[in-house]
Amino acid sequence: MPMSGGTGRSTTPPGPAPLAQIDNLNSMQFDGASDFIDCGDSDILSFGNGTTDSPFSLSGWVKPDNLIRFRFINKWSASLGYEYLFSTGTSRNLTFIINSRGSAARIGITSAILTSTDWQHWVATYDGTGSTTGTNSGMKIYINGVEVTTSDVNSGTYHATQNTTTHLKIGTEDNNFYYANGKIDEAAIFNVALTEAEILSIYNATAVVDGVNKTADLSQLTTPPVAWYRM
Fold first, then answer.
1. What is the pTM of this model?
2. pLDDT in tens, 133-165
3. How many domains does the structure of the chain reveal?
4. Domain containing 62 — which CATH number?
5. Phi, psi (5° rounding) for residue 43?
6. Tens of pLDDT along 41-57?
7. 161 CB contacts (<8 Å, ≥6 apart)?
8. How far is CA 121 from CA 80, 98, 146, in A?
9. In this structure, is residue 231 part of a structural domain?
């Protein structure tokens, strides 16, 4: 998977001050056919024990060449167990799924269809307080620092997410059915639900400074990520 230029914006939008910046010179290119990163399994990447849920967030930059089934960050396996999936679907809606058991899932889908293939910052957060009735309570999706409207598409009676042996994968899910086609950068996983101000501070830190791509130093957040894949 060849390296290519990292994320970069030439302007900084209004909002919370950006985090401290670090150089961002490369990103990872995914071919949409077979490329992915296998990050293995670890308890720090799971956010439920079958009885209670814990809050978490998924964050990163993407530049899709194809917006259909762009698999981003996923711990999702038909054979080993479902935990969470952050991806676009067949209709180019950004989708955040938390699965508990079998067909029982809490799902948030952006109402707007994605059209941009420019660099964009995707974040999904869950505060751990979702209802057992299957609603996506506590789930939020942000694009470029702004929370977007989501609709509920849920099934079954929701139970707490399980801690499975499924590997975390970037660019595909553990089943290797669908792949990301485009670039991914600065993928990060947090064991807290990031606030809107924190998300904006990450987004605002990514810019071009004196001709050099810069991005947020996530280690400067109050709660740094439990995993950070800088590409």
1. 0.90
2. 545 568 899 999 999 988 766 666 666 778 899
3. 1
4. 2.60.120.200
5. -60, -25
6. 999 999 988 778 889 99
7. 46, 47, 48, 50, 53, 83, 84, 98, 99, 100
8. 29, 20, 10
9. no
